[in-house]
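Hi, here's the filled form for the chain we discussed.

Project: internal
Contact: R.S.
Residues: 168
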Amino acid sequence: MSDSSSPTTATTNGKPAFHQLIAGLTAEIAGKPLDGALDQWLNATHGAGSARFEQLRQACIGGVAEGWLCEREGGGIKYGRVFKAEDALHRFSVDVVDMQDIAGPHHTHPNGEIDLIMPLDDHPGATFDGRPAGWCVYGPGTAHRPTVAHGRALVLYLLPEGQIKFTA
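And the returned structure, exactly as it came back:
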């Protein structure tokens, strides 16, 4: 039986608790431009080692273990869209990927992309696009080939209106 009153047991309530956790975060960033200032703010406010970072990290690790996160696999990457863009999530969609020493498919971000980089315990030095644990914000119109190096990490993607265009 789960203890739903404890904030550290976000995964015991599965997907609904994760939705609530993400909705709280997206409420804070709704309407802000996806730029360097948001990147800095997210890392200063909810960066690696913060309570919010650990809640999200543990919820993602738990979701993978429970089978409702990263339930698909292709090209050596486990992935899955957890939630489509909706008003309750301030029009952000939510995807989570599980990557280890691999580059994913090249894509563009018509409206930008916000990434939470969560190296796993046995790979604390894992990076995403050269960035360590924490947040990475890509502005509208940017593109990349998402790359995890130096180990394994979960990466949470927030996409405004769920917009992403794969180019290769």
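Let me know if anything looks off before we file it.
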